[in-house]
Amino acid sequence: MNLNLTGQGLELTDGLRSRVEEKFSRLDRYSEHITSAHVVLTIKDKRQIAEITVTVAKGKDLHAEATTEDMYLSIDELAGKIERQLLKQKDKAITAERKQGHEIRHEEGKE
Q: Where are the beta strands (DSSP E) in 2-81?
């Protein structure tokens, strides 16, 4: 997975870079179809905004955003949000596969 990081209105410190890499490098465990993730860190007024767009080869691209007063907290919240979306997408795919497999077995029984 290719992880891109962009900062808007702030300097990307080594601490921010390492937190982003730590939190998002393990997204691969939720899906082997993730091709890239783009994280954007922005400061607007006193709001610390973290956004991510995850590109998934076999599924819909996912987007999440978290806003707090602390950038590290925004990154942590963002990681939780995108992980929940990936789990939901994975569960839907598994359910669809099971349903499709059940329909095939059911049709074979009719013959």
A: 2-8, 34-44, 47-56, 62-68
